[in-house]
């Protein structure tokens, strides 16, 4: 195969830069050129194919035509022209389910994308012959077909009107290493219009991320309009135009689902809830207490009165209503950064504790059990931040999912307690780090989690570091996270992309791959994203992007 | 005056947040409300008013109508409505020259903006009476009138269809503390289309920055098409579409001038010139030598053969041709990071040194004298980076302008040598710091100038620190700088704005003002920029922006 290709295509001895991201589990490529025929078409051979699969095929066709991604080499692929003139053309991609799967598929990509983590099947097989006969994409699920279409998209470069690969034939068998590959967006510190979230979902899908962890509310604002609780966003959103209505949520959830993405909503409790005091002052302790640094990690202070039966009922009812808005099998009740002093200084909380005879920790335990009972009653698995397990030893169901955020070093302790968890560590995946201090009047202040977490850093992450073999089975995956004290629509894309793609590969393909080998492909990701309207940033001077390896540390 | 206003406008006892940036030298405000009349107009009472003044008036009118900047307070100014119903309206702003100045003005804002630093007059006087009689803007120059129009723009908030101030009457006498207030953009590491530069010029003008220091070329690319030297960009630009043609340059220079901005172009020599080897290998030592770290501070290595008479003639001819493209009174020949090892290892350079009997330092001195002679022959003042003075003690004319970049601590040493200088220090004004390492294959690498330089940090800068009174007169001003290894059109706005406005105020209004007092006004800058299509970022959660001071460190 290789010798055949070399005869026809002398340029193939150059190291071609494949634009695949994340790398498939199994990838075999040749070194032959293959052009897409001008009448190239994708044929969907799936009985009763769901509409979101057909839409995905249309988007794929459109991207293939419009990406116009030139190879990132000197001359941008112009040297490929002569070989392309004499090569075969590919006229069709056939998309089909494995025969045994036809009866089992769910009604849509969206439905398959939001199935419980253990039930998802994202695997697919893709073959692109070099001889011009039809390429074939097959899978057990429409979700798997969608992932395969994303891969097929990435096979093609463009030069001077030709859409082509120089690596035919191509044979791929693929499935992700971890079922949870997410991105967390905080829409409470600053608000993001629906269109920004949709653009983010698009970009996520292009690198096979499958979960939007939506940190929708926090102490600063509550933009989610919850049926039965509309006063919370009416008083708690930044403005009437900075609200996600149930219709907006439905738009986002459907848009995500059609792109193979589940939306895991978080209502952070009992901390990070100051803004609820605008509509329900009776339920919030130490609301806007000063100095804020005595009562909270950042302004404003304010936490739900966890010992109050009324505040607990309000919270469980709110969570129940939120749960009905989101079809995911998961919902996060938060649980990070509970400030003890806030409760110690709150007369109502102290009175409630005295009345019940509970300690604060016991009251927290009861509060979380109540909220989780409500979440489970809606058929969902609760998700919590690591403190619930490590700091407060709250009674949690075995299937509770834990987000490890304070430090990657804490993963082992969470695993030791037997909980499934998602890597979300600030020392690898926090995208806001390194942007300086945002608290006012602090001239020499620095980012609390300085330095900036480069793509190289997150790419070097080992999901099973310091875990036993058994503990390693508790890793559900991981995610980058964007806390938005210093970001908004203006810098959403540029902070996130292409950096978050590094996590997408670690949790799909696995860790341990060399950053120097990944960088050329990541440049391709960035350039392709820009072509598609997502403002990814250059990771290096273009001079380096065009010369793989030459700007490495020891080059 | 104040008591009168209070009677009519009870809301005025709240602390209004003025959106002026930079703060005028002298500012007197009342606390009365004043609306713009629906037929508000700006009358230009300047004989033979230049067309760029008339265009600036049109832009001002358009911005006033379209900014729709709501006050950054809870309720966004809705509470102002009742008072506005009963207040006076302003129908006109009269724009005029001081009578003695009419004969002296130059032909346009552009021409006045590019006059030598010592000859510019940016002062103006602006009065806005509270009684509805015409506001008056007067100045000695059309450049001063332009600065005053920018200030007038910033006086107005918007709420529910009304354009208004709550601080009438307003009386301003203004002039800048320093004549050089710049922003440096590197268009060599990554390319920026003309439209991005124009948008940057717009934004610069809105905070009265007056110099674009255009670091147009570097070792990675040479995008400037120079008449007579077109081979340099033809071989040295990233692509044929990543070139600034003479027509592009003219567009940029004119666009800048019309906005009161001078364009100081830099052709960095003899270092940072590797890419010239693509068109003129004979003139470049150690071109792309490896390992790059032995020959340059970043890849690729390559420096002009400073000891070669032919390379020197090439350089002086190139600089002469570049000088003809730019009408500014200044031109930078660069001079930073000259790598000695590159020349020590270069046989041609060693041969030339032997032939001439010069040391490397003597050859550098001769080279710089030759290039500066060429620059001066074009009527321009040479500008250099600090190493020319501090490291190599090159023979420089007394009027040479020095950029202090390595450390703010080096300003005193430059001043001690009697040179005028521009603060460009990496420890205060480098906008790329804190974004992580961009060199490939460096997992734990960090930004060389970490941490991120926050706006608070640059705002705290003291331009005359450690200088004697006499040395302080050598300070021409200062600038923020964007080196673009990790930036491009995708993150230009978000890296620069509103942060670079901090320098704009320090070098217009002076230092020593409190960051806590500046922050609310800087929020206004960011919000206004976004309204105008410049993607400034949020400096804080909107919750903080709406509550001045409440998110301060000790609040």
From TrEMBL, chains A, B:
Catalytic activity: Hydrolysis of terminal non-reducing N-acetyl-D-hexosamine residues in N-acetyl-beta-D-hexosaminides
Entry EC number(s): 3.2.1.52
Annotated signal sequence range: 1-19
UniProt xrefs under SUPFAM superfamilies: (Trans)glycosidases (SSF51445), beta-N-acetylhexosaminidase-like domain (SSF55545)
BP GO terms, sorted: carbohydrate metabolic process; glycosaminoglycan metabolic process
Residue ranges of every copy of the Glycoside hydrolase family 20 catalytic domain listed in the record: 178-510
Residue ranges of every copy of the Beta-hexosaminidase eukaryotic type N-terminal domain listed in the record: 20-155
Annotated Gene Ontology cellular component terms: membrane
Enzyme class: hydrolase
Key words of the record: Glycoprotein, Glycosidase, Hydrolase, Signal
Alphabetized GO MF terms: beta-N-acetylhexosaminidase activity
Domain of life, per lineage: Eukaryota
InterPro entries documented for this protein: Beta_hexosaminidase_sua/sub, GH, Glyco_hydro_20_cat, Hex-like_dom2, HEX_eukaryotic_N
Active site feature: 337 (proton donor)
Family: Belongs to the glycosyl hydrolase 20 family.
PANTHER family membership: BETA-HEXOSAMINIDASE (PTHR22600), BETA-N-ACETYLHEXOSAMINIDASE (PTHR22600:SF26)
Name of the protein in question: Beta-hexosaminidase
Organism: Dentipellis fragilis
């Amino acid at each position: 195969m290789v010798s055949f290709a070399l005869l026809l295509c002398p340029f193939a001895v150059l190291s071609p830069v494949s634009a695949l991201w994340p790398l498939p589990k199994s990838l075999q490529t040749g070194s032959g050129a293959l052009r897409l025929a001008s009448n190239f078409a994708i044929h969907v051979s799936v009985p009763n194919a769901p509409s979101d699969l057909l839409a995905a095929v249309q988007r794929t066709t459109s991207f293939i035509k419009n990406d116009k991604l030139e190879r990132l080499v000197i001359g941008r692929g112009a040297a490929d022209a002569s070989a392309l003139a004499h090569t075969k053309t590919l006229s069709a991609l056939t998309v089909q389910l494995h025969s045994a799967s036809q009866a089992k598929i769910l009604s849509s990509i969206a439905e398959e994308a939001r199935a419980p983590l253990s039930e998802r099947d994202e695997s697919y097989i893709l073959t692109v012959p070099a001889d011009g006969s039809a390429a074939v994409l097959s899978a057990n699920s429409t979700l798997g077909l969608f992932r395969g279409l994303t891969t097929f998209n990435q096979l093609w470069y463009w030069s001077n009107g030709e859409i082509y690969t120089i690596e035919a034939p191509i044979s791929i068998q693929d499935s992700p290493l971890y079922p949870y590959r997410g991105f967390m967006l905080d829409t409470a510190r600053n608000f993001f219009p629906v269109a920004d979230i949709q653009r983010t979902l698009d970009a996520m899908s292009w690198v096979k991320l499958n979960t939007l962890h939506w940190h929708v509310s926090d102490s600063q604002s509550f933009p989610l309009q919850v049926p039965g609780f509309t006063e919370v966003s009416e008083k708690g959103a930044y403005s009437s135009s900075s609200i996600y209505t149930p219709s907006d949520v439905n738009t986002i959830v459907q848009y995500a689902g059609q792109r193979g993405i589940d939306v895991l909503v978080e209502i952070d409790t009992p901390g990070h809830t100051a803004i609820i005091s605008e509509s329900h002052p009776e339920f919030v302790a130490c609301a806007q207490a000063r100095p804020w640094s005595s009562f909270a990690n950042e302004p404003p202070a304010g936490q739900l009165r966890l010992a109050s039966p009324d505040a607990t009922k309000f919270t469980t009812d709110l969570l129940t209503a939120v749960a009905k808005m989101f079809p995911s099998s998961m919902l996060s009740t938060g649980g990070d950064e509970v400030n003890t002093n806030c409760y110690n200084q709150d007369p109502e909380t102290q009175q409630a504790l005295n009345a019940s005879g509970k300690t604060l920790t016991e009251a927290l335990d009861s509060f979380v059990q109540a909220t989780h009972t409500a979440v489970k009653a809606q058929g969902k698995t609760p998700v919590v931040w690591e403190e619930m397990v490590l700091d407060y030893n709250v009674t949690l169901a075995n299937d509770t999912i834990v987000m490890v955020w304070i430090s990657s070093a804490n993963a082992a302790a969470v695993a030791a307690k037997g909980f499934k968890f998602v890597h979300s560590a600030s020392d690898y995946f926090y995208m806001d780090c390194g942007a300086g201090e945002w608290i006012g009047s602090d001239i020499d202040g620095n980012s609390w989690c300085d330095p900036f977490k480069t793509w190289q850093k997150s790419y070097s992450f080992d999901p099973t570091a310091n875990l036993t073999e058994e503990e390693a089975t508790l890793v559900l995956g991981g995610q980058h996270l964007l806390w938005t004290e210093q970001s908004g629509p203006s810098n959403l894309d540029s902070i996130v992309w292409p950096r978050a793609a590094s996590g997408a590969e670690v949790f799909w393909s696995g860790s341990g791959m060399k950053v120097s080998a990944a960088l050329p492909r990541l440049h391709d990701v960035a350039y392709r994203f820009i072509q598609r309207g997502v403002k990814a940033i250059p990771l290096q001077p273009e001079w380096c992007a065009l010369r793989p390896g030459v700007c490495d540390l020891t080059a």
